[in-house]
Design brief:
single chain; 185 residues; alpha+beta; PH-domain like; 2 domains; elongated
């Protein structure tokens, strides 16, 4: 099978957000920061309540409630902006480059204006399918991103990738309901 496509910043962003959403440590840190920020405002509200300062008590109580409900949305957008800044700083030279990827039975061959590379199927760690992309995770930590909106039938791609996963005995994960969530649990 042969594919020709190019990637943009949104493709890299989707991949990084997906990886962040399944990373248990990062999910735990997001939840912990939400709880800590909320508890800080609760403590400040309580301190001003004890000192009979009604104005600051009400002020920090409002911030507590606001933080409890709005912080997850802020955090979601913060991570998105952070990853987009990272992508635009590190991957900007990769945007729009036409890449030809060939799956030839035992290895993946990639050709672009940058150069050529080959990797054996055995170097694949896992294959993940979401609603818009396929991610082929390599044991070195890199990921081959393949957008479903290329001129190849996604069902044909799915069949090929399931065959590769079965052949190399790696996980093939279908997560078509995935989306970047506000609340990290």
């Amino acid at each position: 099978m042969e594919l020709t496509y190019s990637l943009g910043s949104s493709d890299y962003l989707t991949q990084l957000l997906y990886e962040a959403s399944i990373n248990k440590g990062l999910k735990r840190n997001r939840l912990k920061s939400w709880i800590i920020v909320t508890l800080v405002f609760v403590c400040l509200s309580f301190l001003f309540y004890q000192s009979n300062n009604q104005f600051l008590f009400k002020f920090f109580s409002c911030f507590t409630i606001l933080t409890l409900f709005v912080y997850p949305f802020y955090q979601k957008n913060h991570y998105k902006r952070h990853y987009l800044k990272f992508i635009n700083g590190h991957y900007k030279n990769r945007f729009g480059i036409q890449t030809k990827v060939v799956f030839n039975g035992t290895e993946i061959e990639m050709y672009s204006q940058v150069g050529e590379s080959k990797m054996n199927y055995e170097t694949l760690e896992k294959i993940t399918e979401i609603s818009s992309h396929f991610f082929l995770r390599i044991t070195t930590g890199n990921t081959l991103i393949i957008h479903k909106n290329i001129n190849v039938d996604p069902e044909k791609l799915r069949t090929e990738f399931q065959h590769i996963a079965k052949k190399t005995n790696i996980n093939y994960t279908i997560d078509t309901q995935w989306k970047w969530k506000n609340i990290p649990y």
